[in-house]
Specification:
Blueprint: H1 10-25, H2 29-39, H3 47-57, H4 63-72, H5 78-87, H6 91-100, E1 108-111, E2 114-117, H7 118-124, H8 128-136, H9 151-157, H10 161-175, H11 188-193, H12 197-206, H13 223-228, H14 231-239, H15 256-260, H16 265-273, H17 293-299, H18 305-313, H19 328-334, H20 338-345
Antiparallel strand pairs: 1-2
Helix pairs in contact: 1-3, 2-3, 5-6, 6-8, 7-8, 7-9, 8-10, 9-10, 14-16, 16-18, 17-18, 17-19, 19-20
C-alpha cells in the first residue's frame, strides 16, 4: 500500500536521491543505515539505488511506480506544497522547501479578502521557523496585503507574540529608519491599534510629528485604540498632541469618539475629558452619515449603556437627527436594540 503523494514532489525527490548518493559514498552513518535494509553492504551505490530507497521509504515498490503516481496526481506548485506544510504545522518540511527553493520567499497567495504574501500566511499561522526561513531567503519583511496589513500585524493580532517580535526586529534592521516603520518594527497606526504603547513611544521619540500619521483607511492614530479599549495607548497619544477631532476619511468615517462609543466606556471618558465634542457628526456619505457618538452607540449590538451615560452627562443631545432624519432612539429601535431603547426612553 503506497502512501499519499500529496506532500511528495518529483523534483525534490530527485534532489534527495543525489544527496543520498553523496552521503552514502562519503560514509555517512545515517545514510548507510537508511540503505542497509535494501542493499546491505554492496560495494557501489548509484543514483538508481538511491531512487529505489526513496521509493520504498515512501511506500512504493519501485521508483518507476512512484514516478507514475506523481505524474498522475494533480499537479501541485511549490507554493501549494509550502502552504500545505504550513497548514499541517510541518515546520521541517516548510523550512526545507524554502531552503531548497528560495524563490518561495517572493510568492503571494489569493485568499478570500485578496492577495497576501507567503510571509503573511506563515505569520498569521504563528509558524516561527518558516517565518525565519522566508526572511533569511530574502522575503520582504513588511509587505502589506490588499487589506493594508503587514505580516507583523497578522502575527500580533493572532496572539503569536514570538513571531511578531521576530518580525519587528527584522523590520527594524531592514528599513534603515525609513517609512513605514521608521526603524520601530511596526508603523505607528498599527502599533496603536494593537495597544503597543512601547512602540508608540519609540515612534514619538524619533519623530514627535508621528502622531499625525494615518492608516490605510485614513484613520488617525487615535481611532483604533479608542475602538479597541487601549486606554494607556490612547492616553499617551493624546498627551503627545494627536488630533482628538480628526475624521477617519476612507471607509467608515467618524471621529475617535464615535469609534469609542461603540463599546469602550473608559476610552469615551478619556476622550471627553480631553475635549472631544459629544455632538460631533460623521460627515462621510454612508449608512453612518450624520451620526453623533450617541447614534453610533445606539446602532451597535453591544448596547453599551455606560457609553450612553457618559455621553449624556457630557452634553450629548439625544434629539439630534442623522442624515436619514433619525434620533439615536429611532436608530436603536430600528436595529432592535431593546436595552438602548429602554434607556433612551426613560428620560
Amino acid at each position: 500500500m503506497s502512501r499519499s503523494v500529496d506532500r511528495l514532489d518529483l523534483r525534490q525527490l530527485k534532489v534527495q536521491a543525489k544527496e543520498l548518493v553523496r552521503a552514502v559514498r562519503s560514509g555517512n552513518a545515517d545514510a548507510l543505515a537508511r540503505v542497509a535494509p535494501y542493499f546491505g553492504n554492496e560495494p557501489e551505490f548509484f543514483i538508481s539505488h538511491a531512487q529505489l530507497v526513496l521509493a520504498r521509504e515512501n511506500g512504493f515498490e519501485s521508483w518507476t511506480r512512484l514516478r507514475e503516481e506523481l505524474q498522475l496526481a494533480p499537479a501541485k506548485s511549490l507554493g501549494d506544497h509550502f502552504f500545505q506544510a504550513l497548514l499541517a504545522k510541518d515546520d521541517d518540511r516548510a523550512v526545507e522547501l524554502v531552503r531548497q527553493n528560495p524563490e518561495l520567499a517572493g510568492i503571494w497567495r489569493r485568499k478570500e479578502y485578496g492577495w497576501v504574501s507567503v510571509l503573511s500566511s506563515a505569520a498569521e499561522l504563528g509558524r516561527l521557523e518558516p517565518v525565519k526561513a522566508l526572511v533569511e531567503a530574502g522575503a520582504d519583511v513588511y509587505p502589506v496585503n490588499q487589506g493594508g496589513y503587514p505580516p507583523v500585524f497578522e502575527a500580533a493580532s493572532g496572539g503569536h507574540a514570538e513571531v511578531a517580535e521576530y518580525l519587528m526586529q527584522a523590520s527594524a534592521v531592514r528599513d534603515s529608519g525609513l517609512p513605514p516603520t521608521y526603524g520601530c518594527g511596526i508603523d505607528i497606526v498599527l502599533a496603536a491599534r494593537l495597544g503597543m504603547t512601547g512602540r508608540l513611544r519609540m515612534h514619538v521619540e524619533r519623530d514627535p510629528l508621528a502622531v499625525f500619521r494615518r492608516g490605510c483607511i485614513g484613520e488617525t492614530v487615535l481611532h483604533w485604540p479608542a475602538h479597541n479599549g487601549h486606554v494607556e495607548s490612547l492616553r499617551y497619544l493624546l498627551e503627545h498632541g494627536a488630533l482628538i477631532e480628526g475624521d477617519e476619511i476612507g471607509l467608515y468615517g467618524g471621529k475617535p469618539l464615535h469609534w469609542a462609543s461603540e463599546h469602550a466606556p473608559e476610552c469615551v471618558e478619556l476622550l471627553l475629558a480631553g475635549g472631544a465634542d459629544p455632538n460631533s457628526r460623521n460627515l462621510m456619505k454612508n449608512d453612518f452619515e450624520g451620526f453623533t457618538p450617541l447614534h453610533m452607540m445606539a446602532s451597535q449590538r453591544n448596547q453599551c449603556i455606560e457609553c450612553a451615560e457618559l455621553l449624556l452627562r457630557a452634553g450629548a443631545d439625544k434629539s439630534l437627527l442623522d442624515a436619514k432624519g433619525r434620533t439615536p432612539l429611532q436608530v436603536a429601535a430600528q436595529g432592535g436594540r431593546d436595552r438602548v431603547v429602554s434607556f433612551l426612553s426613560s428620560g
